[in-house]
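LOG
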Amino acid sequence: MIKVLILVFVLLSLLAGGDRTAKSLMTTLINISIFALLIEFIYLGFNIAITTIAAALLISAVTIFYQNESNIKTVSAFMSVIIVLALSAVIIVFVVTHAHLQGFGTIGDVKIQLSNGYEENIGINMILVQVAVFIVVLIGGLIDTSMAVCSGIYEIIRHNPELSHRDIIESGMNIGSKILSSNVNTLLFIFAGEFMILCINFLKFYSWSTLINSKDFAQELIAILISAIGTVIIIPISSYIASCLMCNKSL
């Protein structure tokens, strides 16, 4: 069934978008491969921080430059993503450490315990693994928002070269504010859809307060909140970087 759905998706995408969509599909395939390698390297015992940084840089570079080509818009977006990822990494480490989000959850049909044939201690720093998970979740929203803001600023400057630096930044902020609600709603419904069945099943035996305070719920909700915060932070940063780079170039 999975193969059939993938085939239908690819065919419909190519039919609707042609060559442009083919490039997007190839980008997706490359990013999946990078993510798979990240998991493999962590499993093999490679340094989690270094492999996560490398994977984040590769995914960002492939998505921005391969899919959208190399130009001043993509350079601005890439710089913005890297800055926000660096800032977010500090926040993520703090949150994961103090909220004790690392490790396996306690809800679900399959419990990670010795009686089920699973090892609870797998010899890997689970704090860093959880940080890596949050960073991977964060990347997609950052790239989409940054590209939208930088592309919008590029068109504004191209058609209104007389605008001041401050006006261009304000225009970028306006663009970001218009797509922010859509992005946050997307993240919210991803979370809601993913946890709907779990919530219904969990509430048969426990209360809402127990559900909200469970590790499984907290891990997913905090990941979504961090993505939403990153999406907000990258708007002014993208606006500033794009305006600085593009105002000094002849568009």
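LOG (cont.) second protein
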Amino acid sequence: VECVASSYSYNGSSAVENITLSVHERELMVILGPNGSGKSTLLRLMLGLLRPDSGEVRPFGTPTSSFRDWSRVGYVPQVVEELTGRFPATVEELVTQGAYTGFNPLTIFRRRTPQSVINALDTAGIPHLAGKRLSDLSVGQQQRALIARAIVRDPDLLVMDEPVAGVDVGGQEEFYSFLKTLVARGMAVVLVSHDVGVALKEATSVACINKSLVFHGPPHQITGKEFHELYGLPIDILLHDDVHEHR
């Protein structure tokens, strides 16, 4: 997906300004920025839920105004109590909803779980939770269920809004390891995060925005200057691995 000089305003108040970036196959992009910086607006533009006031957003080379193959894009929202606490459905039923392509009268004669649902549950590592209600699961398990729903139609792009909010450190490491398996299979993954450390460690690319684009590129190329511009605070970066220099 490409954003070309894209801008959007709410009631005359600018949310994102002149954003140009692209996401490619086998890429794990993390979008960073302070509260109110336009991160969620950028996701909505990518998903076609908003149309830019100026510029253009092109999923797979086609402007959102004429793009129709949205099955190629999966979306995972934040886990919220309203969804998991009041939604009287099992994990399997939730994932099956993601596989819905329109009414088919023959489905009343089908008793077996669709193979696509089985595959999605297996990929997400939760086949043993198929019969469990969402409200009975941990936050990490709920997030896996939402991912299974998002990937049941085998999308090329997976977009997530704060996917590890409320997940403990161990769960986060497991979660990003899982995302890397999706990326290795050819999927592009874009997610919003507030965790700078995780972004620098796990992402293949980072997009830092504060209404406008402050930085876009490999995480090892970002400097304290960009973070100062992003958050308005002096930040020292200490990275210790084979790719990143120590600074």
